[in-house]
Write a structure and sequence with these properties.
Strand content: 15-25%
Oligomer: single chain
Helix content: 25-40%
CATH topology of the largest domain: Rossmann fold
Low-confidence stretches: none
Radius of gyration: 24 Å
Number of helices: 18
Largest sheet: 6 strands, mixed, barrel
Distance between the termini: 44 Å
Shape: globular
Mean pLDDT: 96
CATH class of the largest domain: Alpha Beta
Structural class: alpha/beta
Strand order of the largest sheet: 16-20-17-19-18-23
Amino acid sequence: MTNSVDEIADADCIFVIGSNTTSSHPLVATRIFRAKKKGAKLIVADPRRIQLAQEADVYVRQRLGTDVALLNGIMHVILKRGLHDSAFIEERTEGFDEFKKVIADYPPEKAAEITGVDADDMIRIAEYYAGAKAGSIVYCMGITQHITGVDNVKSLANLAMLTGNIGRESTGVNPLRGQNNVQGACDMGALPNVYPGYQPVTLLDNQKKFASAWNAELSDRVGLTVPEMLTGLAHGSVKALYVMGENPMQSDPDTQHVKKALESAELLVVQDIFLTPTAELAHVVLPGTSFAEKDGTFSNTERRVIRVRKAIDPVGDSRADWEIIQDVSNRFGYRMEYDSPEAIMREIAGVTPSYGGITYDRLEGEGLQWPCPDTKHPGTRFLHKDAFARGKGLFHAIEYKPPAETVDEEYPFWLTTGRVYAHYHTGTMTRNSPSLDAEVREGYLEVHPVDADRVGLFRGDKVKVASRRGEITAKVMVTDRVDKGLVFMPFHFVESNANVLTNPAMDPIAKIPEFKVCAVRLEKA
C-alpha cells in the first residue's frame, strides 16, 4: 500500500475495485465503513454485487476483464471536464501527452459498450473521485489476476496521478495483499528478478553486494515464476521443486497440468504445517511450524514490520522454517550459522536499505513501516510525499485488451473465482478449524436465477461445471449477486476445486495467471 490502513477512515472518497473487502480484508473494510459514516463517497466496481455494493454511492458491474476500458472511460471524463490536477501533473509527472492521446479514444459511451457500465455512472465516478480532497483507491486480486493485470494496476496509478491523489494522507493506490506475509516475502526477494528490497539481480553492483554479503557466487539471470517452474517440470528442464507454505495443487490454475508437472519432478519437497494435496505428492515432507510456535517478523499489507513471538514450543517433530532451511543448506555445503531470527533480521537490515533502521528493539509495540533507512527514522506512514521513487511519476498510455478466453456456444458462461469470509486461501488452516469450517463447509456455484431456470437448476442441486481444461461438480446457489451469463465459485474447497477450470494464460510481465476470467458450460449433474 502507498498509504496506511488507518488513513482510509479519513478519506473523503474511496474507490474499491476488484476487492471483496468485507470477506477478504474485514479490518480494512471497517475503515471504509468509518469513512462512509463520516460522509465519504464510496465507489465500488465489481462484477459481483458484493456486500460493499450495498453501501456504495455508485456501484458498477463491469464485464470480466474490462477494467482498463472502465478506468480509461472515467479518466476521459476527468480530462474533458477539466477535473484533473494540472499543477501536480506538471510538477511531478511525465508521459502525460501520450497518455492523453490514448484516453481521448475512450469516451464513456465507447467504454460503456466494452464494459457494460452505464456512461452516466462513469461520469458520476469521475466527478466524485476527482472532486475529492483525499481520494483513496483500494484494490485486490480482482485487478491483478488477469492477463492485463499489470495494465490494470498502471491504469489505477494513472487515475491517482491524474487527480493528484497520491503522496498525501488518506490518498494513494492501495493493494490489499492476499496472505498475511505476502508483502514480507516479496520484500525479502521471494521474486525471480530481485534481491531483498527489490534490488534487481541484473545490476552488477547488486550482484557484487549480495555475493560479498553471502560469500557466494550469484547469477545475474532472472529466475522463473511459479507457472514457469511448473511448465519446466512438465517439460523436463526443471528437475526438483521445494515448496514451502504453498499449495499449488489447489491454488494454481489448470490443476490437471499442475498435477502432471509435480508428478514429473525427480524430487518434490514440501514444507508445511498440514498434509496438503501438494504434500501428498511429495517425496519428502518437512514439518514446519505455525505462527504460534516461532519467533520472527511479518510485514503486512501496509508495509508494517511486526514482531511474532513464540507462544508454545513446536508440536511433535515440527521445527521453525528458518532452522529447517539452515540445516538443509548446511548439508548441501553452503554454511549458514544464524543462531536466532534476530540474527537474520540484523543481516536483513544490513543489505536492504528500506529495512536499514529496523531492529528487534525498535519493533516493540506496533512495529515500523518501511522505508525506514536508519535507526533514527520513525518509519514511513505513506509513500511519495515529495517525489516518486523514480523521480517523476510516469503516465502509461494503455489500450484495452480483451481476456485470453471468451465465451462461445460450447462454453457460454463466464466464470470468476474468489473467497468467502470464513476461509483463507486453500483452506489449509481454516478448514482444519472446526468453528471456521462449520461456517462454510463446502464449495458452491453462484448462478443467476434466469440462467438457473434456463439450465433447469434449483438451489442445492448438483451441477457439472466444465471448461476447456477439466470439469468439477458443485452445489448450486441461485442468486442475483452475479449477473446473467456470469457464475462464481470460491476456490477454497479441494472437493470442488475451481482451479481445475481456470485458465493458466498469464500476464506477459508479472506472469500472474488469469484466475478471474474463463469460459465454462453448466449441466445438471
